[in-house]
Design goal:
Shape: elongated
Order of helices and strands: HEEEEHEEEEEEEH
Radius of gyration: 36 Å
Number of domains: 3
Largest sheet: 7 strands, mixed
Strand content: 25-35%
Helix content: 25-40%
Number of helices: 3
């Protein structure tokens, strides 16, 4: 009886190990199938069209969508932080079996765009920032598509700048810079444009104004000095003439 009980206990233990291995194998196969499904169906569509004004305000549209995988699929979830709610409007997007959302941006400051791009998704795949230094405005950013296989993404970024574009790694189409990031890689993009900030007086314009004002004040002082000097000469001449007449 003791031997039989021991045998049965050992067999139950082996059965539990086999069952545990099978469950582990099934879980791994399920995870692999899920990852394969995401990779195969992971087609995304990202379209960015922005315009920078001379007041350093940014407006435009940002579309982020993916191929629908099931009925009622809403597409990628986008997060808009509360402080930007008044400057960003979301619209549902459904076209060519792609589903997602389109963001309409209105008069966003440079700092607003940085916050929006960094918080829009949990994966942090997107980065974009603008900076001004005098009359120079620079933009730097990146998009991470390393998790997507080739031919699984439609991505295009267009940003229009006022003034002159001095340097960029994109295609310059009369002041509108275009990038077409490729899947399977991280794409960096950057621009340096030159224009005056109309929302306030730029540093160079301020220097010009101050310099012009200084020159204007100097001219006024010189004119007053000449006027006073001539008046003094006339008074001296009048006094001398009056003395001759008296004699």
């Amino acid at each position: 009886m003791g031997w039989a009980a021991g045998y049965l206990a050992a067999r139950d233990w082996q059965d539990d190990r086999v069952r545990s291995r099978r469950l582990t194998r099934l879980a791994a196969m399920a995870l692999l199938a899920l990852l394969t499904l995401i990779t195969v169906s992971g087609c995304v569509r990202v379209q960015v069209g922005l315009a920078v004004s001379e007041d350093d305000l940014i407006s435009g549209e940002v579309l982020i969508a993916a191929l629908s995988t099931k009925q009622g699929d809403p597409g990628p979830a986008l997060n808009i932080v509360p402080e930007l709610a008044g400057k960003v409007r979301l619209e549902k997007y459904a076209q060519d079996n792609y589903v997602g959302q389109k963001m309409i941006l209105s008069d966003m400051r440079f700092s607003d765009v940085t916050v929006l791009v960094e918080s829009i998704t949990e994966g942090k795949q997107y980065r974009m920032s603008f900076r001004r230094s005098g009359d120079l405005v620079s933009m730097a950013g990146s998009i991470d598509l390393t998790q997507l296989p080739k031919e699984k993404a439609e991505v295009q970024i267009k940003i229009a700048f006022p003034g002159q574009v001095n340097r960029t790694n994109g295609l310059n189409e009369d002041g509108t810079i275009v990038w077409n990031p490729k899947p399977g890689a991280v794409t960096e993009f950057g621009v340096t444009a030159q224009y005056t900030d109309n929302s306030g007086v730029s540093w160079t314009k301020w220097v010009a104004i101050v310099g012009g004002a200084a020159v204007g004040v100097a001219l006024i002082v010189l004119a007053l000095a000449l006027f006073g000097h001539r008046r003094t000469l006339r008074q001296i001449a009048a006094e001398q003439q009056a003395g001759l007449v008296t004699r």
